[in-house]
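Journal club prep — side note

Before the paper discussion, L.F. wants everyone to see what a predicted structure for a comparable chain looks like in token form. Sequence:
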Amino acid sequence: MKKRILNNWGLKLISLGIAISLWFVAMQIDDPQDKSTFSDVPVTFVNTQVLDEKNLAYEVVDGTDKARVVVRAPKSIINKLRESDIVATADVSKMTDDYQVPITYTVQNMGTNKNEIRADGSIEMAKLHVEEKSTVWVPIEYKTVGEVADGFIISAVTTDQTNLEISGAKSLTEKIAYAEAVINVSGATRDVSANIGVMLYDKEGNAVDVPAIYENLNKVHIEVEVLYTKEVPVEASSSGKPAQGYAVNGDIQADIPQIEIAGRAFALSGVTKIVVPAEEFDVTGRTTDLVKTVNIRDCLPNNVRFADGKFNGKVTFTVDIEPSVSKKIELSADQVKVKNLPQEWEAKVADTDQPISVKVIGTKSVISELAIENIALEVDIAAWMEKQKVTTLKAGRYAIPATVIAEKGVITEEDTTVYLTISKKEIKGE
């Protein structure tokens, strides 16, 4: 028996073959072969340094940088495949004399099952256009899109990069005129910053999408300063007095009476107007209008600027000088205001039944519209005592100069004297 078993090798081999066939059939029944197709699989080029060393650049032509790949494998493997598992590789070091590079197709992340997988691509060779390599610098232009919120403006746009280095085939780099980075500021109420990708454009402003162009950076950092805005009036006053017989007629007129300013909230909070110093408009001895242009930029508070960046700050002012007229008016005792009177004293206008005559001077239009009820006489007791070198008041009747308080454009050239009766206050209970 032993001899019969050891000598029957042919039977043994036949049995082994049948067993393997049965196993294969069983496997096909349990895990049959299947296939899956992946479109537009990108071709990755490796060992491109062989071109760099020769100062050459390449461009893929005829769409041979993407392929359709069919993968055949057991169904259990096919069901696990993802597009990222399919790899198409072109080794530039194996490039032929007519600039074609063989493509190999592999499936990664399959562990020990690689022998059961077959990947076939629709393209066997990647076709390249090879020429001299060129490196150039192009300017980066920055653009904002959208509108900031109402009441705000874009003050400035700054960046960490102003130029971009690009390399590639000379015929391609020559097309590039500039790069552009775009940042969205829609509805912004504060500064905006972001890292933004750049796009390449030709001289006509057409986007140039050339994968074979290599940039020295992918993104640039952009910061957009956003400021509050506020509209305020521009005001001015004059200094000096016109020639005798002439007066300033009304307020100084500005050709730009309102101006929009911008700044941080804290800087604008206390700004209610832009005031030009009176010394800018000295009308001393004038008989004609004074017209003067002033750069009001010098009148802006710290950390405040014009909202309109194109505005040069120049405003033209007109001081209207006209012949003056005088008029005698009569005021009542009720129109006399006494201030700075020591607390224990009181003052009353003497002869209250007698009107107080005042001569006022101004332009014809101002004097004609003068409302007497809006005029007052102000008596400053402390100032009078200082001028008279009086340290202690005594009861009695005094003639004290008064200041006329009237509308703008009204002056007096004559002193107005008011007679006051000054006495000690009566203390109740004494």
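L.F.'s comment for the group: The chain has a mean pLDDT of 88. Keep this in mind when we get to the figures.
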